[in-house]
Amino acid sequence: MNLEEEFAQHRGGLVAHCYRMLGSLHDAEDAVQETYLRAWRGHADFEHRSTIRTWLYRIATNVCLNLLQHSSRRVVPSALGAPGNDPEDLHAQALEVPWLEPFPDQLLGADPATVVGDRQSLRLAMVAAMQHLPPRQRAVLILREVLTWPAADVASLLDTTTAAVNSSLQRARAELARLKPREDELREPPEPLRRALLDQFQAAMESKDLVVLEGLFTEDAQWEMPPIPTWFSGRADVLRLLDSKLRPGPDQRVLVETSANGQPAFALYIRGTDDQYHAHSIKALTVTSAGISSVLGFHQPALFPAFGLPLIHRS
Fold first, then answer.
1. Using CA atoms, how far apart are residues 22 and 74, in angstroms rounded to an integer?
2. What is the pTM of this model?
């Protein structure tokens, strides 16, 4: 295997690693490009005291830490304030804040480093929570908990002590325990029930069947729509939003199933005046045994190509 092929086999895992650090797919891809540039330039000095994979992750972590010196943490609307309850008051102008972006699962590819545990560490609730950690603390958490690096190796990368790494990890764990949902709130139902919930959601959204949607959402369901800062909490307010914003009548929208951050997702296409279906948003769902507890809809059509989806849907 030549060097280019060896670099390429780690690309999916590196993009996921940088995404956890940065909270942005586009920033993560830029960070991986910079990682490869530095690796090509420095390969002559690589003394094989570690594997190529470990060496690449060291470079990528430093690239991300440099980027985070000049940027703000990525957020979701629910991190900015209390929920709204008026569907007509959605603040047409988006706030100038860096929003969390979704991660297309297909980008993971066949990287052997992407094991089952990565799915949990990529969930939107987890990545959003990690954005609250200081950058170096975030790096410690990801390197120790996701990549399972020894504390001594993390200390070497960050030019600190093993004791400092262990202390930072304890603080990161405590902060995540405060911020992220409990495991039982994220546990998905058995596959037949999960499949039924997703099929019903897709059909009910396309037909604007609010009665069915009412039965699918949990009582405390949330609906968020970055870059729109207003968000909604509670089944009644979510349904009020959908009643206001979903156009009635047949064939107004199409949902195409995909997946993001290890979660089920749908790409929403809206029928335009030209009778074509135009890319609108990527909606990532949190599905629990009690029903759909969260929909995070990213109103960014520019994300569609990263999911392998066209901007115009043709049935």
1. 7
2. 0.92
